Amino acid sequence: MSSPRSGFRKSAVALAGLSITALALAGCAAGGSGSSSGASGTIVIGTTDKVTTLDPAGSYDNGSFAVMNQVFPFLLNTPYNSPDVEPDIAESAEFTSPTEYTVKLKKGLKWANGNDLTSSDVKFSFDRQLAIADENGPSSLLGNLEKTDAPDDLTVVFTLKTENDQTFPQVLSSPVGPIVDEDVFSATEVTPDNDIVKGKAFAGQYTIDSYKFNELISYKKYADYQGLLGEAKNDTVNVKYYTDESNLKLDVKQGNIDVASRSLSATDIEDLKKDKNVKVVDGPGGEIRYFVFNFDTMPYGATTADADPAKALAVRQAAADLIDRAAIAKDVYKDTYTPLYSYVPAGLTGATESLKGLYGDGDGGPDAAKAKETLEAAGVTVPVALNLQYNGDHYGSGSGDEYALIKDQLEADGLFTVNLQQTEWVQYAKDRTTDVYPAYQLGWFPDYSDADNYLSPFFATDNFLANHYDNPAVNDLINEQRSTTDADARTKLIEQIQDTEAADLSTIPLLQGAQVAVVGKDVEGTVLDASFKFRYAPITKG
To answer: CB-hemisphere CA count at 13 Å for 335?
Structure first.
């Protein structure tokens, strides 16, 4: 396989320096590892995250991808503790021409239902992503894919629209990359979870043995997995879904679970750090938090009665002038997050602070006088009525305090009147893509360790946000940087995209931070990357 160029490797290594906190719980948990040996044993994991759907074409969120990583095969994958992609169920993968990426599969691959896993399944998987193009799916990551061919059972040829796509190998390891069984999945519609589980359409390290939507998933080791990650460490992994962080924290303290992740509040983490039975472990992260403007339905948006693009821009600019990121990071998240002044987080090659000098006081702080002047110059009547939506179960209970503070910041000087609402995640994921919310909260974990993954999904034409933002100049720059092989030239393009976006403000970046997990003392393995793959096992007792 052709390795990533130095610019990409630098990006990935830089990302590995971002902070992620893991808390190791000292008490004996419910997994009961005392009698375990080798790869046997059961791990119990607790999470407040949610699954949207098990179908890779219908979801683009951490909760769903955390499941997909365990049960679906990938052509390329990232080994534990590494940012670089390597062949997974592929034998080899390389560019065979500037616009052709050729993958050779390993021989004898099987689905858990006994079906052969061939190049036909691979072609089917990528064809259906583009055909379905679900608004909550990751098909936007395939913006440079022209077509997929399967000339024989073991060969897949991806034809790309632009040459030398520096991100495509990593895209194959991303949420758009899971391979699915063409005999179980629909070619044109998102396949229901129960059909996937019933069809045993799995070929990752684990299969799903039993499934109760957003309540409990029981995984079993898949003995015929032939991929990069090797044999699973556990015979069984049970994942319990919590609706409330306080209940998750209680089970952490009582030793009822082996691992807890996504999410404990900043206050809970601060409290657990004082517990003598808890230790803190650091590793890489890359999460960002931001909110989105819908260019059709926001104040003065394209489909509103008083549509006016200049006034709509002034509203976005004034909001950016009033946001105090440092206060949000400190007061809400106890500095477990840091202020984010651009779209690419600090630590990645090409990251800038494009918004810092443009808005507020020019040094990261708010400036109400500047916001007022911007609105007056555009002829905007104040206060501006802004409907702002957020979600508390997917992004954690801190979201309530975060958006209450944002509401206070926007309203403090009488320039905005904010109608703040929250919605449960499964409904939220549907509503945000159907123009229900004029402005709304989102968060992001990277699909791959490159600045492009913080740009293409959000700002390319037909982007994941579905917020009706479309700047052809930005789209051209995104395509150009993706195919630029010179690292310095590519970095300049990435910086230019951020500068242009800072002027357009289709989203307002707020914070960057990390994941948090709690790991029991009788469990080996810690959270060292953001891939969501199970890497925990009971400590062998001899």
So the answer is: 0
Q: Are 35 and 22 in contact (CB under 8 A)?
A: no
Pairing relationship of beta strands 100-105 and 155-160 according to DSSP bridges: antiparallel
Q: Which of 198, 96, 193, 190 is nearest to 151 (CA)?
A: 96
480 touches 460 (CB < 8 A):
no
Residues 296 and 470: beta-carbon distance below 8 Å: no
- Strand segments, DSSP code E, in 364-461 are 384-390, 416-422, 439-444
E-assigned strand segments in 130-184: 145-152, 155-160
- Tens of pLDDT, residue by residue over 352-374, are 999 999 999 999 999 999 999 99
Cis ω on the peptide bond leading into residue 140 (within 30° of 0)? Answer: no
Radius of gyration of the chain (CA): 23
pLDDT digits (tens, 9 = 90+) for 477-514: 998 998 898 989 999 999 999 999 999 999 999 999 86
Contact 424, 393 (CB under 8 A): yes
State the pTM of this model: 0.72
CA pair distance 288, 381, nearest whole angstrom: 32
What would the two tokens of residue 180 be? 């699915």
Cα–Cα distance list, 348 to 7, 13, 315, 447, 450 (Å): 10, 8, 30, 14, 7
At position 529, the amino acid (one-letter code) is: D
- Tallying the residues shown for the chain, one arrives at 542
What's the rounded Cα separation, in Å, for the pair 530 and 510?
20
Judge contact between 418 and 438, C-beta under 8 A. no
